[in-house]
Amino acid sequence: MQVSIETLSDLGRRMTIGVPAEKIESQVQLRLQEAARNFSMKGFRKGKVPVSVIKNRFGRGVRQEVLGEVMSQSYYEAVNQENIRPAGQPRIEAKKLEEGKDLEFVATFEVYPEITLGDFSSIHVEKKLAEISDKDIDNMIETLRKQKQTFQELDAASEEGDQLDIDFIGTMNGEKFEGGEARGSRLVLGSKRMIPGFEEGLLGKRKGEEVKLSLTFPETYHDQDLAGQAVEFAVSINSVARAQLPELNEEFFASFDITEGGEQAFRDEVAANMARELNTARRNNIKNQVLEGLQAIHAITVPVALIESEINALRQQAMQQFGQGSQIDESMLPADMFRKQAEKRVKLGLIMSEIVKQKELKPSAEAVRTLVEEMAESYEDPQEVIKWYYSNKNQLATVESMALEEAAVDVVLASAQVNEVHTSYEEALKPSLKPGENATTSDADADE
Description:
By secondary structure, the protein is of the alpha+beta class.
């Protein structure tokens, strides 16, 4: 087999491969002989049909099948022979296919970039340190109470946080506009669900009142027909209801699966969940900064084939989020929607893979176990969840990838400039980013 390689660009390669005619013809002959042994034809006993007859009838199709297989096999043999790492599938084009002559075809493809790891000491990381105070726990309990609040109707002027049942009709230049009308709509004042001025205009109003609101849609409103337009809303207030927070009692605790130990047990559980959340947020914030730093110190050309593959994966994820019953068609999600994110994910994946390779990292059993136990903690029966992970190879492989990524992040952190900052619990939960930067999510090729 003869192989020659041309460099088309930084990553683009064209490989011309020549295969001796004997290899093609011998395989074609074997296929025809095999077909003759199993073929039945009028005038011949089974297995006695001459190969020449079989060739006249099926030779063209058999030859095409053999050519396809030989080109594919020869391509991968040539790649191994030349020690090349293709990125994505090749485009194969036959040049010489004449029967009895050597086969020649061209494979065009991209290769993985050569990556030289940058100076990790130039990466700056801010590590937020925080303790959970009694006040933080009290605030979290109030948040949980609000999640389970109910609303009770009353005959009083509306206040911030009240839930109104309203009918409204919106008009622009005296004409109704699409989406500007509703009946029996429930609106919590202060939720900022409506355009500026709408909710504010309903403060201090009572059941049965009719309100006229002259407002202007924001210039950045998603509907271009309404953006920046002056409109009027006629609003009828059907009812005013005020939030009622649940008492801190056994019934409330039981709704969070706390059936023994009363309020102290509930507080302890809330504190434990907050500690887990704080630890996860701290780890993700540090990881995000490491990933941003790695992107900044590595300028690499990313294979287009890998970007396109990642775009397809992101598009499929988006379709799944829309749900099976969605009317969204895949063609309505253009590639450019996902391109920047795909490029970032692929670039980070290549860099992280290079760190793993050069540092010869492997996921330790202890690290994998720790991650599994952390994920199982929030379930009612953690031991069952742990057993499930260890009995499911695919799920365990995912955790092993997470552990490997964390090991790579630790390698970077060992050289990076880490600055510890003491802060509040709420502040510690926020992403640690420089102005203009975007966070990645918790894995190396995560969504933005």
